Amino acid sequence: MMRSLYTAATGMEAQDLNISVISNNLANVNTTGFKKSRAEFQDLLYQTIREAGTPVVQGQDVPNGIQTGHGVRASATQKIFTQGDFRQTDNPLDLVIEGDGFFQIQMPDGQLGYSRDGAFKIDAEGNVVNSDGFYLEPQITIPEGAEGVAIGIDGTVVATVGGEAQQLGQITIARFINPAGLKNIGRNLMVQTTASGAPIGPGVPGLEGRGTIQQGYIEMSNVSVADEMVQMIVAQRAYEVNSKAISTSDQMLGIASSLKR
Q: Are the C-beta atoms of residues 101 and 205 closer than 8 Å to each other?
């Protein structure tokens, strides 16, 4: 059987994954704090028919060898952590991290999740929570009757209660040596893995390489629709070319099988 059939099939499978990644990026173009991903690929094993430098006669070697590849496979989906655009909301509980770092979210199972989504709310008990009702860590509680909440660039939370300023707590953020190694679990949350390493800190925003916090803004997705559409066109054409290679190989096999003595 012609190896080109299998080689081209791996190309189609790779572009199918590529389109899936691009589609997910486009689907989340309006997701707060979303970070786009990029599919990465590597070539497969090579069959060496003749080694380069093989002697042909005394004192003479062939300058080039003969190798045939066996296609392509996905090697990684790389998450890109470039800063998304900021959108002003004037909501005192909408926060962005300007720079490096993640908000810490206490999940129901006790595990910490990490997020760039700073669209926080207040629950019935005054606790600051995310859209799913998970607590911000460290936990901040807004007292009943608070007239206003101010959050400094260093994460200090102050509320005006009874005409007096009252400090409610300190928002800390975490950093990772390899944030691309974090595992996405949905709900705008990620969890640490052995690849990401343990979080550095957590600590005060603005110190030791951490970003600062800006109140009244949210961070938009860093997906560029124009870029993703271009990548989609490239992936579509690559898929078509690989399918054409399969069709051509099939025609060649048909010619060979129709030969008669």
A: yes
Burial 218-229 (b: 16+ CB within 10 A, else e): bbbbbbeeeebe
Residues 94 and 64 in one domain: no
- Total domains, the chain: 2
pLDDT in tens, 44-90: 988 888 787 777 777 777 777 788 889 999 999 999 999 999 999 98
The Cα 196–Cα 176 span in angstroms is 6
**Does residue 110 sit in the same domain as residue 61?**
no
Phi, psi of 6 (to 5 degrees): -70, -40
- Which residue range is the domain that position 38 belongs to? 3-81+223-257
The verdict on 74 and 127 lying in the same domain is no
Claim to verify: residue 178 and residue 232 sit in the same structural domain: no
Tokens 């938009």 belong to residue: 220
What's the whole-model pTM score? 0.88
